């Protein structure tokens, strides 16, 4: 049995005051504000081109924690948040990596909420394990929170050589009174990673395969230099999402919206405005 987070209390940040509603879902170890610059650009200079909602997924950012991981529970929590924020309107939902999986499950479980879907560099399949993240998890667990004197001290002690990855992971570090804590539910992620090929975070829920396909328009964005989306994933994607269009961005890796923000903004604006 999984323990769902409080569905009514996911933390969100709003950008824009008018136009279509767009919800942004981040990836593992991220938070809603990772999409802030994209959302500002999509909403336009006066904020009237789109109403964007940047969502902190459960166990991330300022949203509540859960005891076990469940994609279904994550999707249901996002659904409750969108219902509350949307006044009954449908959303364009944009999700990257883990957020892309949540967005897909959301569209399949709650199609009445999703007017169109953007899935960024992830496919509806299991990825085996969290092996790629295990080094990050060990480094985060090894940071002596009780000894830190400043954020600069944390940065100096954190051994990740890629400055972009280091900044991304350390955004989860928050001052707590005189001490420090991880904002992300690091213990939950570590326990899941320890399951190896039985990881739930890396998996795709079998029960979702029994749901009817989502019939709305879907833009599937892949990074040309990423390996998360493979040619053979197309059949499975179209089985769940028959109106899928694949858009591959050359030179972009897994963090497509960081590598090619201008292209992402243009693609989102066109897709959301398309009446089809």
From TrEMBL:
Signal listed as a keyword: no
UniProt-listed Gene3D superfamilies: alpha/beta hydrolase
InterPro entries on file: AB_hydrolase_1 (IPR000073), AB_hydrolase_fold (IPR029058)
The organism's place on the tree of life at top rank: Bacteria
GO molecular function: hydrolase activity
Keywords: Hydrolase
Pfam families per record: Abhydrolase_6 (PF12697)
Keyword match Hydrolase: yes
The protein, known as: Alpha/beta hydrolase
Taxonomic source organism: Terrabacter aerolatus
High-level lineage: Bacteria, Bacillati, Actinomycetota, Actinomycetes, Micrococcales
């Amino acid at each position: 049995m999984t323990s769902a987070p409080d569905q009514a209390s996911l933390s969100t940040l709003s950008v824009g005051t008018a136009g279509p509603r767009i919800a942004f879902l981040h990836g593992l170890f991220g938070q809603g504000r990772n999409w802030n610059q994209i959302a500002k650009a999509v909403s336009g200079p006066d904020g009237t081109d789109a109403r964007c909602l940047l969502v902190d997924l459960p166990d991330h950012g300022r949203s509540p924690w859960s005891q076990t991981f469940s994609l279904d529970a994550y999707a249901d929590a996002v659904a409750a948040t969108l219902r509350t924020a949307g006044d009954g309107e449908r959303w364009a939902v944009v999700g990257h990596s883990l957020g892309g999986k949540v967005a897909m499950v959301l569209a399949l479980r709650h199609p009445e909420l999703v007017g169109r879907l953007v899935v960024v560099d992830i496919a509806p399949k299991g990825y085996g394990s969290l092996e790629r993240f295990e080094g990050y998890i060990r480094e985060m667990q090894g940071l002596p929170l009780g000894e830190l004197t400043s954020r600069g001290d944390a940065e100096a002690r954190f051994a990740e050589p890629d400055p972009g990855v280091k900044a991304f992971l350390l955004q989860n570090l928050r001052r707590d009174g005189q001490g420090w804590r991880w904002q992300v539910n690091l213990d939950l992620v570590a326990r899941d990673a320890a399951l190896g090929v039985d990881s739930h975070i890396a998996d795709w829920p079998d029960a979702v395969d029994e749901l009817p396909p989502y019939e709305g328009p879907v833009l599937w964005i892949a990074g040309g230099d990423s390996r998360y989306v493979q040619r053979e994933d197309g059949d499975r994607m179209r089985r769940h999402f028959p109106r899928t269009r694949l858009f591959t961005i050359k030179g972009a890796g897994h963090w497509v919206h960081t590598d090619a923000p201008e292209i992402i903004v243009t693609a989102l604006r066109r897709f959301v405005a398309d009446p089809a």
